[in-house]
Design brief:
The complex is a heterodimer of chains A (369) and B (417).
Chain A lengths: L1 H20 L4 E11 L8 H20 L4 H8 L2 H5 L2 H4 L2 E10 L4 E11 H11 L12 E16 L2 E6 L11 E4 L19 E6 L3 E7 L2 H13 L3 E2 L2 H10 L6 H8 L7 H13 L4 E14 L6 E15 L2 E17 L2 H26 L4
Chain B lengths: L1 H18 L10 E10 L5 H4 L1 H7 L10 H12 L6 E4 L4 H9 L3 E17 L2 E16 L4 E16 L6 H16 L1 H4 L3 H10 L11 E11 L6 H4 L2 H20 L7 E2 L6 H7 L2 E2 L2 E6 L4 E5 L5 E17 L3 E16 L4 E17 L7 H22 L2 H7 L3 H16 L2
Helix pairs in contact in B: 3-6, 4-8, 10-12
Classes of the chains: A alpha+beta (369), B alpha/beta (417).
Chain lengths: 369, 417
Amino acid sequence: MQIMNRSLISLILLSLVASIGLQAQMVEEKGVGELIFTGFFNIKTSDKQQALDKAKLNALQRYVGKFPSSKQSEYGKVRSIVESNVGSYVPSAVVLDEEKDKKAKTYRVVVRASIDAGRIDQEIQKVSAVSNVSRGEKSRIILIFMAREASETTTYGIEKQSQANQSKEEIAIEEQSVAGGTVAYSGESESSQSTMERSKNVKRSDKINYRVYSAEGINNTMSQIFTDAGYRVTGTASVEKRSQLKGVDFAVQYYTDEFSSGNDISSDTIFATVEACDVNRVKYFAYGSITVGEQRTDPSSGLDEVSVFVNGKVYMIDDGFEEVVASVGPVNYSAVGPSVMDAKANALKLAGKEASESLTSQLRAKNLY
Amino acid sequence: MKNTFYKKKSIFLIIFSFLSTLSISAEKVEAYYSGFSFIANSGNLPKLFPYTYEISKMKEEGSSQSLLDAAARKTVIDNQPDKFSLNILGENVNQKASLAKGQSIVCSIAMDNETVSIEHIDDFHRVVIFLSAQILFFDFNEKSIIGSFPFRLQFQDVITDGDPRENEGARIKSLVEDLIINKDKFGLSLMDEFSKRIKNLELKEKYKSRIQVANVIVEEKSLHALPKRYSENSYAFKRFLGQSFSTLLSSNQDISVLPFVLTGDENTENNISKAGGAIGGRMTTTFANGDAYNLTIPEADFTIDFTLRGYKKVLIEEKAAGSSWVYGTYSKVKVYESLMNKVYFDEKIKNGFSTIIPASQRDTDHWQYFQESTLVLMDQLTKQFSKQEKSWAKKHGSGSKTLKQLKKTYKILEKCK
């Protein structure tokens, strides 16, 4: 009696859980299946079913074909599992049309298939190395991503340099655009002496200074994605403090300073970070910038639209040496919002999310944990 | 005995808990009416809907609500559909927020075309007004279109006392306002057309198959006939053609038709801002209260290409009192499924519209006749998919070949119901 009651209760609970599980993340994709049939008069039901299964498989392949390359590499590990059990991952399909060619003895069917995208993602996650090791075996990672936007831009025109008769002329057109703060510009001049006459046109790159800030929203989003992917995200501030106590000169401020005037980090700062990670037994560090770009009114909706650019890398420290094991960008994202502030926040969050997903996907594809 | 009862109760509970999550309920599908909107970029509203846009800014007497919104809301309240439940979405932010929690279908009356043509004939002016809109259903959470049911009206009036364009077109604006919301004035209105359309409309949470006008091509032999607003903005003209075909197909075959989109090279930022409407898989709706949504249009299962091959007007007879003309529209229509590359319909279809132009008419707006010829072509073709008349196929197409393809296409349209 007690066993029977327990069984029934379990069955009730199971059906409730199964019911909830039905609310899967489904996506739709079209697919086509073709078969050479063998019957003389009509196509056998089994032939039709085969063609339908082929169409479902085609839909699945078309869906997977849209994955970014890193995710495609990951999917490669589970492809045989998924494709040998198409019915579970493509639970339903609506037949849109079918065509029978009696002469060529071919039967084709086109469907709109419902694909359980969530289940495929779960399969990918299941076989990743990081999901199959214990917590103690997983390595730590710190994230150092900065949001920044231009605070002043100096634009140069064509600079004409002629080295003749020990004279030089210099033409520079300067424009300064400032968003807050004081602007100070110092010009440069050179003189040279030569007995040969030659001239050249030189275009100098724009000089841009950035206001760098650590956006909480991005950090939280990125940390969550790395954590969900199975990685042990460690607080960067904690690693900074511990490093300094151990005599290693590492500070997040170096990234802030360097990203304020350049697009990448110096080798000295990389080295300091490697040392800091090494002494604290942190195996990976990821860093990058998300730069706020153009702000405009979206012509489609009339809402404010902001673009951002993402650049990022993940280094692995192995025996005191660093190597790049994942990278993203430069890639552009944009988002809209009812105000510039909302649009900016949306764009930064989107960029952080996409960058994290790409980086974790690359790490998983390489079985790194 | 007690054991058996307990077992039966438990089995019932198992089945109930499983079925409760499935949508097998016999209850009506529920949708929320959210307001009057325009299918266009907000920046282009004054250009594409010069009169309706001005009217949309007017407030109802004694209220902060837009005149159009108020009229649309009243129409919805007074004309509840028979086959699904349409609730009114309030201004309450919480109500909107609660929509986002679950799957909710939102409905809007979305205006997609306003055309006003004025001809000066002798001592009077002939005004022709063409208005069209869609009953648009979309998933609030996903911002994805579920169904679209176009409707339209055309009206002609003769004004004998003065030029209606004077006084910044105040008279035209008043006419357009009446045509949208005041059925009592002329015996017809856009809101009335809406109420007729929605009465027997069957809304499904999901449609078996989806069809869409995907490509509109305008060949060079058509360009000479276009009015300035279209010759300067070819994408607006394509939008007019695409939306008109979609409207007539939907109403004549009683099916949902996905909104027309601009694709390919046309999908550049500059062209997007000019054309308005649906762009590359997304469509902007701008509501009268200022809310704007970018809606995703799902991929169509079957697609239609409409090619306007040319316009030609032919003088049939000339007399002292006037001349008789035929305005000819030459088109090519293709209906196909792209994955299997199966073509159901690929025919040249033509139509002629006859009219008499009085000798006293000072200026003739030829475009209104070409437009009429085009719309009649589309109207007749979309009806013929089910009517399948031999005589029509012979006169407007290529005879038996056209007839055969009409039948083939009808089988596809049935799948879209």
